Automatic annotation (TrEMBL):
Residues 129-269 form the SIS domain. Keywords: DNA-binding, Transcription, Transcription regulation. One of its GO terms (biological process) is carbohydrate derivative metabolic process. PROSITE patterns: HTH_RPIR, SIS. The keyword Transit peptide does not apply. GO terms for molecular function: carbohydrate derivative binding; DNA binding; DNA-binding transcription factor activity. This is MurR/RpiR family transcriptional regulator. SUPFAM superfamilies: Homeodomain-like, SIS domain. The keyword Cytoplasm does not apply. Residues 3-79 form the HTH rpiR-type domain.
Length: 294
């Protein structure tokens, strides 16, 4: 749970009010030192009030400052072991970074996104979503912008597992499809912030029609998370080039892979047969290897 607080802070940072972002930065900069501060000391250091610190704690799902201090104290020791790698590779993209440094930072961010996402993925929610997908007559997947390709990947994998899925990135098409869903169908939305208007509109329409609603998001307290019946949370620290959605996309694809593998495992024999049929169907479109294995 202690590590979960820091993961939550990193993923929710951009969605917090400015005053709470200042507190979050201080906590992430030195969790151990923060754990030793009183609430008034932290408030003064961040140039804010004790009330804002308490509000910040509740924003990240804690009861209050005392609980935050407990989590930070428990996490401080583990972080000391990770500090060297995190300092070298976990920082933001710098203007003077070499190409080698850029590659290492991207790899580190993606690997950490996968590690943190898997470590804190709610297995019971994943299991419930797989159960809903197995019995669904139709499955809609919504994603816009950088999540559109993730939605397409999810629909592709669900098709490969023999489930009737379609990905929608156009808001009008998504709304039309959502309006025809019924009880027993599934609507899966993908949104890093959980605040994308097009995603919220499609998800709300699917919910009105009685479909099981789910979202993959980094913000478990976002409007999309409040709207969805099932919430799968990702963890990703974005760099300066956030618009590319690099680490967040990696985390989302990891969750999609978990859904696909869990679904295939639940229908083990049927999934193997479906994959074999798919392989046979495209076999003629793949060039054979030559004698040198090329």
């Amino acid at each position: 749970m202690s590590g979960d607080v820091l993961v939550r802070l990193r993923t929710m940072m951009s969605n917090l009010p400015r005053a709470e972002q200042a507190i979050a930065r201080r906590v992430l900069d030195d969790p151990g030192a923060t754990a030793e501060m009183t609430i008034s000391e932290l408030a003064q250091l961040c140039g804010t009030s004790e009330t804002t610190v308490t509000r910040f704690c509740r924003s990240i799902g804690l009861r209050g400052y005392a609980q935050l201090r407990l989590h930070l104290a428990a996490e401080a020791e583990r972080l000391r072991a990770d500090d060297r790698a995190d300092t070298a590779l976990g920082g933001d993209i710098g203007r003077d970074d070499s190409l080698t440094e850029l590659i290492k930072k991207v790899g580190f961010a993606d690997a950490r996104a996968v590690e943190d996402t898997v470590a804190h993925l709610d297995v019971s929610v994943l299991d419930a979503l797989v159960t809903a997908i197995l019995s669904a007559t139709r499955i809609d997947v919504y994603g816009v912008g950088s999540t559109a390709t993730v939605a397409q990947d999810a629909a592709y994998k669900l098709h490969r597992a023999g489930r009737p899925a379609a990905a929608w990135s156009d808001v009008h098409a998504a709304l039309m499809s959502a309006s025809t869903l019924t009880t027993g169908d599934v609507a899966l939305a993908i949104s890093h912030s959980g605040r994308t208007r097009e995603i919220l509109d499609a998800l709300a329409e699917a919910k009105r029609r009685g479909a099981t609603t789910a979202v993959i998001t980094s913000n478990p307290q976002s409007p999309a998370a409040e709207l969805a019946g099932l919430v799968l949370t990702t963890a990703a620290r974005e760099t300066t080039f956030r618009s590319g959605g690099t680490a967040s996309r990696t985390a989302q694809l990891t969750v999609v892979d978990c859904i696909y593998v869990a679904l295939s495992h639940r229908r083990y024999d049927e999934s193997l047969e479906a994959m074999e049929r798919a392989h046979d169907a495209v076999r003629g479109h793949v060039l054979p290897f030559d004698r040198q294995g090329r």
